[in-house]
Design brief:
Blueprint: H1 2-15, H2 18-31, H3 40-67, H4 82-107, H5 118-153, H6 157-182, E1 185-186, H7 190-193, E2 202-203, H8 206-226, H9 229-233, H10 239-250, H11 253-263, H12 275-297, H13 299-309, H14 311-314
Antiparallel strand pairs: 1-2
Length: 318
């Protein structure tokens, strides 16, 4: 009876604590034999499969750097440099996020919040809090790694100056939003305890914080990915090779597409009453975005790896 259910829900909201409301919802679902929703497998699959792909392309990058050096005319050298060092730190955080996806799924991220033990809700939000911080630092690190790679390829002074500016902006974004995320609630523990309304918490507008972070991230995506395109257009290559090179660098805009898809699930972020269900999509899209960023950052190395075995496919100077 939908009318009766609505009345019970309204009564619980007006007279009961959050935990009592969740218990009421769970009891109602059980009595009415409603099927339990469960998308925990999507959360864990996104972490495991995406991390495996990102790790493979990262290893290809490192192997190609050591075993298959690029041509010096492109000024890409065999030695490991700062771009590789930076992406190592990014990969460490991404592996952490991906591993925690499994933990979150096992705790119940992807199920309705009223079906979970209260202890699991606290644990999920605490791990989610850590994941946010990893996400906010890993993404700018990947983009900084890409910019450092540009500095090795292109020697135009104006381009190098513009690249350093973009590096600084990415670093500032990462630091600023990391601090905002760390101190989103006062005291800090309220980031994972505020949901029960039993604590004296003072938190930022988490929804506005998420949207602002996403907007700045997409702007930096466009600047980072668009930087090399004018330089590539000016390269002295035939049309086919120029097209292949520009296509390779333009594939990075796939990350921006993932960012746009992630925006669609930010609507309920920070305002949800069903945290463990509504946060599942934000979680796995954020994880996919990190994995896609690594793949895009490693595309030049993948091209070098392919060229080693199929030189005609990629061309000797592409």
């Amino acid at each position: 009876n939908a009318t009766l259910t609505a009345k019970v829900t309204l009564c619980a909201a007006q007279n009961c604590t959050i935990k009592q409301q969740l218990t009421t919802n769970n009891t109602t679902d059980t009595i009415c034999s409603r099927p339990a929703r469960d998308q925990t497998h999507i959360v864990s699959y996104a972490g495991v499969i995406g991390c495996a792909i990102a790790l493979i392309v990262y290893l290809i990058r490192m192997i190609s750097k050591v075993s298959f050096p690029c041509y010096e005319e492109m000024r890409i050298y065999n030695q490991l440099w700062w771009d590789n060092a930076v992406i190592i730190f990014a990969m460490a955080e991404i592996i952490g996020v991906s591993s925690l996806s499994i933990v979150l799924a096992n705790l119940g991220l992807g199920k309705d919040v009223w079906t979970l033990p209260f202890g699991n809700i606290y644990k999920i939000l605490k791990i989610y809090y850590v994941d946010e911080d990893f996400y906010l630092t890993a993404l700018p690190l990947v983009k900084i790694s890409m910019c450092l790679k540009y500095l090795r390829i292109f020697q135009n002074p104006k381009f190098k100056k513009a690249t350093w500016i973009v590096i600084a902006l990415n670093a500032a974004y990462g630091l600023a939003f990391l601090l905002i995320s760390l101190f989103q609630c006062r005291p800090m523990s309220c980031a994972w305890t505020h949901w029960d309304l039993e604590h004296d918490c003072h938190c930022n507008n988490i929804n506005a914080q998420g949207w602002t972070s996403a907007a700045f991230n997409m702007i930096l995506d466009a600047h980072t990915l668009g930087l090399p395109l004018p330089m590539l257009w000016k390269m002295n290559l035939n049309k086919r090779k120029k097209f292949l090179v520009m296509l390779m660098f333009s594939l990075g805009f796939f990350v921006t597409i993932v960012s746009i898809l992630r925006l669609q699930v930010l609507i309920e972020f920070g305002n949800s009453r069903n945290l463990t269900w509504d946060y599942r999509a934000v979680g796995y899209w954020s994880t996919i975005e990190l994995h896609a960023a690594v793949v895009c950052a490693c595309m030049p190395a993948i091209r070098n790896f392919i060229r080693r075995f199929h030189p005609r496919l990629m061309g000797s100077t592409a």
